[in-house]
Amino acid sequence: MALEQRRQPGVAGSQLPFDPSQDEAFAYGQAHERSVLSLGVAGAHVAGNLARRLSPADTEITVVNAAPDFVQRMRPNQPAAGRDIEAPRLSDVFTGTGIRLRPARVTAVDPERQVVAVADSDGGGEIDYDTLVYALGSHSDDQSVPGVAEHAFDVATRPSALRLREHLDNLDGRGGGGKVLVVGDGLTGIETATEIAETRTGLSVALLARGEPGARLSAGARGQLRRACDRLGITVVEHTGVEAVEAMRARCADGTFLPADATVWTAGFAVSPIAAAGLEVTQNGRIVVDRTMRSVSHPNIYAVGDSVHTLGDNGLPLPMNCGSAGYTARQAIEAIVGRLTGREIANRRLGYWYNAISLGRHDGILQLADGAGQAKPHYI
């Protein structure tokens, strides 16, 4: 998102109707203050709130997004399984806010020249900024294991989820009996396996975990997860790693093979390498910021969502999830509004207090966490 301060009148509007997430960009401005930001759960939340809180006489906001729709990043496992979920048009989402939309894909950030390069159907161009809010999010890590990029499916984006859906439709069309292997013991893997098993009853679903599925949950919540897998007929393969993915099977670390008509890869996410061009980043490419989400190497750049590396109130790095997207977005909003208006910057809480896990449409777990981010005995 780009902020642009200018002397011409700008337009601002109301708060977003919901807290959105994915990889895109948007800009806002004020008299001599130009800024660019990317759109996702965190980015859209920042854009809508800046439009609401900054003066319409001074502020212009432009959203640059690769797709015309808003993707609910925490839910693509549902359309992958065959369910329809809303993907509202961004033009409808931002109606009445005065936010400008530009359909384009961010290809580079030059922090020294203070420009963001974009590509679109007309060849693209550059957007200059005074303040940049970077929220390009994350994508499935398909480079760590051979064969994943060529043979596996993922649910990290709506297009990839719909590609998996089409493939599962074809398996169902053969009369059922197809084998789906979901690789990954984190929440995305659990939610994807249970969603597919509940929706695609003609397919057999296996969940392969390097450790134990839901290992960070309490004992009671893990029992609830086990019962859900049993009820849905999911085969759980524990303490097994995957060394390679082939067209119709996965090769495990012990040399055995697991057959799969569809391998769904949920074993990790990676961030875009765009931030590494000049910004201080961690080894895995996330932008290092201070307590207000401001880049430690370039103070006119803010980062939110999965793209940011920041410590929570417990002194530990916030995980890459939708909860962290909301916390980092709220803090960035306070910091940007405070610095542009001369107000005191409020410190928002940066916490990790629970995990919400869907187990299909009729079951789920809310796992509470303590101050250190560890599971409490109590769950719902």
UniProtKB/TrEMBL annotation:
Keyword Hydrolase among UniProt keywords = no
Q: Which InterPro entries match?
A: FAD/NAD-bd_sf, FAD/NAD-binding_dom, NADH-Q_oxidoreductase
Annotated FAD/NAD(P)-binding domain residues: 40-308
Q: Which residues cross the membrane?
A: none
Which terms are listed as keywords in the entry? FAD, Flavoprotein, Oxidoreductase
Cleaved signal peptide residues: none
Question: What domain of life does the native source organism fall in?
Answer: Bacteria
SUPFAM superfamilies associated with the record: FAD/NAD(P)-binding domain
Cofactor(s) listed: FAD
Q: Which family does it belong to?
A: Belongs to the NADH dehydrogenase family.
Tell me the protein's name.
FAD-dependent oxidoreductase
